[in-house]
Amino acid sequence: MTDKHSEESEGGAISRRQLVRYAGIGATLVAASPLATTGTAAADDDAARGHDRPATPNGRIWRAGDHHIHSEYSGEFDTSVSPPRFRKGADAVYPIVTNAIMAKHFGLTWAMCTDHGGPTHSKVNLEQAYPDLLRSRILVPEVLQFWGMEFDAPAQDHHTLMIPHHRDEAQQLFELEQRFAKHDAFPADPGRDTEAKMIEFLKAAKGMPHKPLVIAHHASRSATGLGVYGQDTPREFRNGNDVAPDVYVGFEGAPGHQAAPLLGGARGGYGNHPTYGGFDQMTARVGGLWDALLGEGRRWWITATSDSHVHWTRGGADFWPGEYSKTYVHARQDYADIMDGLRAGRIWVTTGDLITSLDLTARGQGREAAMGETITLSRRNRGDVEIEIRFRPPQGVNGNGDRPEVRRVDLIVGQITGPATDRDSDTNPTTRVEARFGPRDWRRQGQEYVIRHTLRDVQTDLYARVRGTSTDEAEPLADGKESPWDDLWFYSNPVFVQFR
Known about the structure:
Helix content is 24%, strand content 25%. By secondary structure, the chain is α+β, with helices and mostly antiparallel strands. Residues 41-62 are annotated as: Disordered.
């Protein structure tokens, strides 16, 4: 639940005039939304959030969110003066509450503001941005709004730094950013931009009573070729995950800036080497880096975000939060449980609202496990493992006014062979597309489609994951200038099978 005391004491009282002004900004943008004239967004709101499905006994359902959103506090610094002078709105332009209103409009129930850092930005976050977040939580209570930032990771590209919701969340972020963000020091300190500093940061985060989450952003945006990586490398992911496996938990499978092709740009902002079906090469390539990490038994997850700065209709490269990309977490509408779901891999992702629900289950020897979980089987009774896939198509139109249809679902399986001897390795040769399914292969059960497949005579530890698409591409092709609405995919996170 929202910490009421924290909002009142730290954020200050909010006046009626402020309420009207903030609400007016959101109302204007919703009225201008392409869905506003159709009535579909409001009608399908509960369906998009999974509220039309029975909750599990623990109250969990699939809840859509976005952990990479920029506000007007992604600004710029005048370093000709000391201390540097901050100016809002230089890179991203929308107030925090505007993003929250639009997130709600497009069916999200949780979101996170992740503004850029810079010299002395930790103080800007604490003194200026955080009070606005507290006001936004009051104005848009339907969306759980996490506190954090787009962390300037030492020696690497940007990362989500998500802070657990608690009374001292603002002070916790201030401490981490001030001590470890590579651009926070003024004057600049080159000693902060090292992998050793990143490891020090992860160790400090792991030791906190309220453990944050760290997720890499647009991991291959600086790559110059397939497997020719830039700022983020396989070795760095392994080293960080080894140090803090319950903090450093994954990377964006689908980066933001997906609207760029609508204005002639590169999808995701990947100007050197493209995305594939809107997904980063580390995720999209079967047997690639993601599979290599999973093949070591790592619990390493993927997400999908908007990286929203400026909407494409206003000259930016972005969709609104939830308009195109969604990260679904199986959780209660509770800050702690959503964060637990992200940490545990109860996650699947989609673009273009291709589907609104996805369940992946492995069963054997009377036991079962779902996404992010492990089914442990007796080695003496090795045998078949039953895989069940359930997905639900959208009940209405998506953010482009389309009714997308799933044309194919792929079941992908890889062996777990243990730690890699080469920490730069980015392949898992055991990974394969186990089976491909078309509309004739699934059957309708209520509002869901169900696929069942048997892995015969399983002899080794493995993981299984699922992807699906609206296209006829056997493998996602390198992206050009096609409309992102014509190239939709969804991906599950894996379920694990191990023998003891």
